[in-house]
């Protein structure tokens, strides 16, 4: 809470297809910086093909958060559709959090931040660098490894790993 008792609200948007321990690490860290963190899951089926449905992705995030320890603020999970900046404004959010892994993330995130800033200069985007252990973890690689029969239990919670296993069967 700030001096004026105004809640600081942050949004962490992502596909979470599925949610990984890398995502959870970013969530825990972002939760130190705001009073309320909204994990926003977009539909965006029009430009990304997901393995899990919108409802399944939301359910996995909720389930993982329910067992997560060490968070510092209220965290809620919501669906959203449309422009992220419109959603952020509607929620009265102060900032959007994104995670940055390798240089490969940078180009896309840089462009998206630039476009969002042009549309809504009042909504700041804040980047949290992926920490060592999770730097190379991505939902797409996890899915690829699992498809090829590899063990991905290190990168997902047991509940999410189980969902991925049943999806691939
Ligand atoms: P999107 O489709 O929005 O990129 P993702 O679920 O792939 O959704 O990622 C959501 C956010 O989390 C992005 O900012 C991404 O860079 C970040 N992220 C994903 N995996 C990691 C990780 N292992 N460490 C840090 N940030 C991550």
Descriptive notes:
The chain is 40% helix and 18% strand. It is α/β, with parallel strands linked by helices and 169 residues long. It has one domain (9-168): 3-Layer(aba) Sandwich (Rossmann fold), CATH 3.40.50.620. Strands 3-2-1-4-5 form a 5-stranded parallel β-sheet, sandwiched between helices. Helix 1 links the parallel strand 1 and strand 2 (36-42). The relative contact order is 0.20. Adenosine-5'-diphosphate is lined by residues 13-16, 20, 22-23, 26, 98-99, 101, 105, 130, 134, 137-139.
Identify the overall geometry: globular
Q: Which strand order do you get reading across the main beta sheet?
A: 3-2-1-4-5
CATH class: Alpha Beta
End-to-end CA span: 46 Å
- The computed structural class is alpha/beta
| Helix percentage | 25-40%
Strand content: 15-25%
The count of helical stretches stands at 6
Q: Estimate the mean pLDDT confidence.
A: 93
């Amino acid at each position: 809470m700030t001096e004026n008792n105004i809640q600081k609200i942050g949004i962490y948007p992502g596909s979470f297809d599925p949610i990984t321990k890398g995502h959870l690490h970013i969530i825990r860290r972002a939760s130190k910086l705001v009073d309320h963190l909204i994990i926003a899951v977009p539909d965006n089926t029009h430009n990304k093909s997901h393995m899990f449905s919108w409802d399944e992705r939301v359910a996995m995030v909720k389930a993982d958060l329910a067992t997560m320890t060490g968070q510092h603020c209220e965290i809620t999970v919501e669906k959203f559709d449309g422009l992220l900046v419109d959603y952020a404004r509607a929620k009265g959010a102060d900032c959007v959090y994104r995670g940055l892994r390798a240089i490969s993330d940078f180009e896309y995130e840089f462009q998206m931040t630039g476009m969002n800033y042009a549309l809504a200069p009042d909504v700041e985007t804040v980047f949290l660098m992926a920490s060592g252990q999770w730097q190379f973890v991505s939902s797409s690689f996890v899915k690829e490894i699992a498809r090829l029969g590899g063990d991905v239990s290190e990168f997902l919670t047991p509940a999410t790993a189980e969902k991925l296993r049943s999806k691939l069967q």
